[in-house]
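Good morning,

Attaching, inline, the backbone tokens for the sequence recovery test we're adding to the shared suite. The designed sequence is right after.
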């Protein structure tokens, strides 16, 4: 088996979030202000996690660094929960 047979096609990491497509659309209603439609669009983009996915994939991060970052984040959340439960 040659190397070319095993290669997978390139998939843009920003093209999907999880298993969902990342196409966010907002169709403004009649007589709706465009600013409201823009806010709705930005809210949907933020909720779908597209921006975070692109930011995280903008540069290479070693697997060990990823694990360390995620571990620190977990510890921070657990510490905050422990402090809130003591009150």
């Amino acid at each position: 088996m040659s190397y070319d047979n095993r290669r997978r096609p390139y998939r843009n990491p920003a093209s999907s979030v999880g298993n969902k497509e990342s196409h966010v659309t907002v169709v403004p209603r009649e007589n709706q202000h465009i600013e409201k439609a823009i806010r709705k669009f930005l809210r949907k983009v933020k909720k779908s996690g597209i921006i975070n996915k692109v930011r995280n994939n903008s540069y290479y991060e070693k697997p060990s660094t990823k694990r360390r970052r995620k571990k620190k984040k977990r510890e921070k959340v657990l510490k905050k929960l422990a402090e809130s439960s003591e009150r």
